[in-house]
Amino acid sequence: MLLRMIWLVLGVFIVFHAYFYLAFGTVDPCTAATFKVINQGESASARAGGLLFSAAIEKLIRSKGVVSCYRIAVTGENPEKLF
After folding, report:
1. 55 and 67 in contact (C-beta within 8 Å)?
2. Which of 5, 31, 45, 67 has the most CB within a 10 Å radius?
3. Where are the domains of the chain?
4. Residue 45 confidence (pLDDT) above 60
């Protein structure tokens, strides 16, 4: 039973990171969350402005913890609620 649980957790971990790699080109959940936040901009100029501040956005997301990184990257939750 315990071995099955370990394999399940490992499988979910691999699936999440495979999704990050395919969707965002990275396996880091915080970097994927940053790309998700930047791509949520409604206009091309908002997305371009997000690229200028991507390091600051990623630093802010990382400061909230790894769980927040996963939550933003997977669900697309509005990161403004976290800040």
Report:
1. no
2. 31
3. 2-81
4. yes
Report the distance separating Cα 30 and Cα 45, nearest Å.
Answer: 23
Nearest to 82 by CA among 34, 44, 43: 34
Rounded CA gap, 48 and 54, in Å?
10
Q: What is the largest CA-CA distance in the chain?
A: 52
Q: Is the pLDDT of residue 56 over 70?
A: yes
Model-level pTM greater than 0.85? no
Q: Are 41 and 79 in contact (CB under 8 A)?
A: no
Contact residues for 34 (Cβ-Cβ < 8 A; gap 6+): 54, 57, 58, 61
